[in-house]
Amino acid sequence: MMNYAVRVADLRVRRGGREVLHGLGFEVPRGRVVGLLGPSGCGKTTLLRAIVGVQAVESGTVEVLGRPAGAKEVRSRVGYATQHPAVYLDLTVRENLRYFGRVIGAPGEDVDRVMGQVGLGSQADQLAGSLSGGQLGRVNLAVALLGAPELVVLDEPTVGLDPVLRQELWALFHRLAEDGVTMIVSSHVMDEAARCQRLVLLRDGRILADETPAELSAQTGTDDLEEAFLRLIGAQEAV
After folding, report:
1. Are 74 and 67 in contact (CB under 8 A)?
2. pTM (2 d.p.)
3. Quick check: 27 and 7 in contact, CB under 8 A?
4. What residues are paired with 13 via a beta bridge?
5. CB neighbours of 103 closer than 8 A, spacing ≥ 6?
6. I need a labelling partner for 213 at 20 to 30 A (CA). Which of 49, 108, 183, 202 fits?
7. SS (H, E, C) 8-35
8. Pairing mode of beta strands 33-37, 198-203
9. Any residues with CB less than 8 A from the CB of 206 and at least 6 apart, and which?
C-alpha cells in the first residue's frame, strides 16, 4: 500500500483569469492529521477543491489514494466538508444524515455512529435550521464522516466554535487518524497549527513550508508557530 493519501505535483489553478495556485507540490502521509494553514484568500479552499476533484486545474496532477482526484473509484473513499454547511435546513439532523447516507451508499447504522462521533445525539430530531452555527457545522462534519472514508477533507471546520468544542473536534480528528483515516484540516487560525502532525503553510497560492510543527520551530528558531509563520514570510520577502 502506498504510504501517502494525497500527492500533488506542479499544480496550477486559474480562476477568473488569475492564477491562484502557483505550481504546488507536496505529499500527505496516510493516517495523519495534516493542517493546511494560511490567511484568508491564500488559496486553501481552491486547493482542497482540487484534492476532492471538484476544481478545474490548468496543469499539474493531484493523486488521491493512488488515483486521479475525483476518479469514480475513490469518490466514496473521500469525505468532504465545505466551509459553509451544505445541509437541508428543513430536515432534522437524522433526516439529513439518512439522506446523504443513501446518496453515498453508507450503511444505515452509520447515522447513529457519526452523530455520536460529533456529539449530536441529543439534537437528532431537531430541525437543522434551528441549530446554532456550531451545531450546524457539526452536522456538516457528520455528513463527511458517513461511509467511513479513508481521507477526510475539512475546510475551516472549527470556525466560530467555542474552545471546548474545538478541543473535542481536534481530539476526534486524532482518534480517526489513529484508526488509519487521513485528515486534512484547513484553518486561518495559527494556534491550531500545534494540533497537527504535519503542516502545509500557504500564502498567496504558494507553499511556504511543508513540515512537522517541531521542524518548523527548529527552522525558524521559535516555538510560537504564528511567529514562525511571520518569520517565513519575512524571509520570503527578503529574497
Report:
1. yes
2. 0.92
3. yes
4. 21
5. none
6. 49
7. EEEEEEEECCEEEEEEEEEEEECCCEEE
8. parallel
9. 22, 24
Confidence at residue 184, expressed as pLDDT on a 0 to 100 scale: 97
d(CA 53, CA 117): 26
CA atoms of 63 and 122, how far apart (whole Å):
39
Strands 67-68 and 206-211 turn out to be unpaired
Of 33, 26, 34, 21, nearest in space to 7 by CA: 26
Burial of 88 (0-12, 13-18, 19+ CB in 10 A): middle
Instruction: Report CA 112 to chain centroid distance, whole Å.
Output: 23
User: Which grid coordinates belong to 233?
Assistant: 514570510
DSSP states along the chain:
--SEEEEEEEEEEEETTEEEEEEEEEEEETT-EEEEE--TTSSHHHHHHHHHT-S--SEEEEEETTEETT-HHHHTTEEEE-SS--S-TTSBHHHHHHHHHHHHT--TTHHHHHHHHHT-GGGTTSBGGGS-HHHHHHHHHHHHHTT--SEEEEESTTTT--HHHHHHHHHHHHHHHHTT-EEEEEES-GGGGGG-SEEEEEETTEEEEEE-HHHHHHHHT-S-HHHHHHHHHHHHHH-
CB-based contact 158:189 (threshold 8 Å): yes
Distance, in Å, from the CA atom of 224 to the CA atom of 156, rounded to the nearest integer, reads 21
pLDDT at 1: 46
Q: Which residues in the chain come in under a pLDDT of 70?
A: 1-2, 238-239
| Residue 150 in grid coordinates | 479513508
